[in-house]
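[Amino acid chain]
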Amino acid sequence: MGLEGRSSSGLAAVCCTMLFAGLQVYKTQLGSSRLLTLVAGYVSSWIFVFLLISINSLEQVLFGAGFQAKLPEVVLCFIIACGAAATVHRVSGTVCFLCSIVALYFINRISEEYQSQNNHAGLYAKKKK
């Protein structure tokens, strides 16, 4: 199973910071060609994913295990990740936005599958008793 609470939030924040630092260190190289500009946008979409994990894990620690990320958290993560990508190149910001939407779709899909498995297991356990 994955990390719990503070560990998950801290590790995701470290990964987000490392990706942002890498983008800033190699900003000139990433902005020099079309392919590397697209790569910078893709890497920035991982900033979105890690930032969303970090914020949501921190909220679960503060507000309880049932707390879920809502629209304001997602929009904040989009703005930060696309802003980080836009410091490299404007096209990177667009690619980051598109890749982040795809990543958000898959995160939502995985979350729904996980929640439905937990709900079915809980109902089965109650019926059996």
Summary: The mean pLDDT is 89. The CA atoms of residues 27 and 88 lie 5 Å apart. DSSP finds five helices and no strands in the chain.
